[in-house]
Specification:
This protein has 5 helices and no strands. With 80 residues, the protein is an all-alpha fold.
Length: 80
């Protein structure tokens, strides 16, 4: 994500903060989000707001995509 995209993402989260429910799903830990979202400072603010009213669900088990890969993608594995 470049800086302009990171700024737009921050503005979106800021606007949604008091008006909507926000659902975030990631296979990355929150400490890795700064790099993923392109701006560690904006990411910190987003995470502080999300954590203010958070309900965390840790989902375990096998991935649906991996379990049903053949029926979803027509092949067992991904090859270039």
């Amino acid at each position: 994500m470049d800086q302009s995209e990171a700024d737009l993402n921050f503005l979106l989260m800021n606007d949604l903060y008091n008006t909507s429910s926000i659902f975030l799903q990631s296979s990355n830990a929150p400490k890795e989000w700064g790099e993923l979202l392109g701006d560690p400072a904006n990411t910190t603010v987003i995470l502080e707001r999300v954590r203010h009213r958070v309900e965390i669900l840790h989902l375990g088990g096998d991935s649906y995509k991996m379990t049903h890969r053949k029926s979803l993608f027509g092949q067992e594995s991904v090859a270039n």
